[in-house]
Design goal:
262 residues, Phosphatase 2c, domain 1, five-stranded antiparallel sheet, 8 helices
């Protein structure tokens, strides 16, 4: 059974900010996605997120073109981790070389779909969710002060929804010369939907609202627009970006055609 992947991405400045510091990218051939949410003055957040997306895409395209057929999952994991480390070093060097970019950084979440698995690498609070058979699961764990307080039992997840310090991240690309990248692997199933998003989405609407939108029938473009519209309808206080990936299989497609053709 061969997995089939469909991709769509959309980004929006929101209703409050004049510029958009998010960056999104995907590559159908190499089955990978990158989403970054920049931070820093003088539009430096835009620079950092664009550098992150471009560097990770470039590094992984080169590696996958050369090694994908023969590489095992451990080697793929190392390649994605190194590409994120390279992006971190690139942003860190640029921030130190240009006074206008001093202090810039970006969150990032990247993923590669291969051999019926999804490999994710992330830094900061940009997220990856999986919708499977009516259940929405957050696959990434926020690197944020709020998440650390939840983990320590200082604040409940219910009260965390109303916290005023949601956006204080504890890790970001470019903030320091070295960064700890969190890596995870999960099995893929036909029918899965994967959502990658900046915090401009999940800060504005609940996971339950996100789940409701993902469950509606429609194209990925319609779903992405509905997610961004929902964030803006709830205040749109930040840039909001989404990448959607839908997983199907050749056997599922054949079954659908059989039903249509009778």
């Amino acid at each position: 059974m061969t997995m089939i992947f469909e991709y769509f991405c959309l980004t929006d400045a929101g209703l409050v900010r004049n510029n958009n510091e998010d960056a999104v990218a995907y590559d159908v051939q190499h089955q990978m996605v990158v989403l970054a949410d920049g931070m820093g003055g003088y539009n430096a957040g835009e620079v950092a997120s664009a550098m992150a997306a471009a560097t990770v895409m470039s590094e992984m395209r080169r590696w996958l073109s050369e090694h994908a057929r023969l590489a095992n999952q451990s080697e793929l994991r190392r390649a994605l981790q190194l590409s994120l480390q390279t992006a971190n070093q690139t942003i860190f060097n640029a921030a130190n070389a240009n006074p206008h970019h001093a202090g810039m950084g970006t969150t990032v979440v990247a993923a590669v779909f291969q051999d019926a698995q999804i490999l994710t690498g992330h830094v900061g609070d940009s997220r990856c969710y999986r919708w499977r058979q009516g259940v929405l699961t957050q696959l990434t764990r926020d690197h944020s002060l709020l998440q650390e307080q939840i983990d320590a039992g200082l604040i409940s997840p219910e009260l965390a929804l109303f916290a005023t310090h949601k956006n204080l991240v504890t890790r970001a690309l470019g903030a320091e010369e070295q960064v700890a990248v969190e890596m995870n692997e999960y099995r893929i199933e036909a029918g899965d939907r994967y959502l990658f998003c900046s915090d401009g989405l999940n800060d504005m609407i609940s996971d339950e609202h996100i789940k409701t939108i993902l469950e509606r029938s429609g194209t990925l473009a319609q779903t992405a627009q509905a997610l961004i519209d929902a964030a803006n309808d709830s205040g749109g206080r930040d840039n909001v970006s989404v990448i959607l990936v839908r997983v199907d299989s050749t056997s599922a497609r054949k079954s659908l055609f059989a039903r249509v053709l009778g």
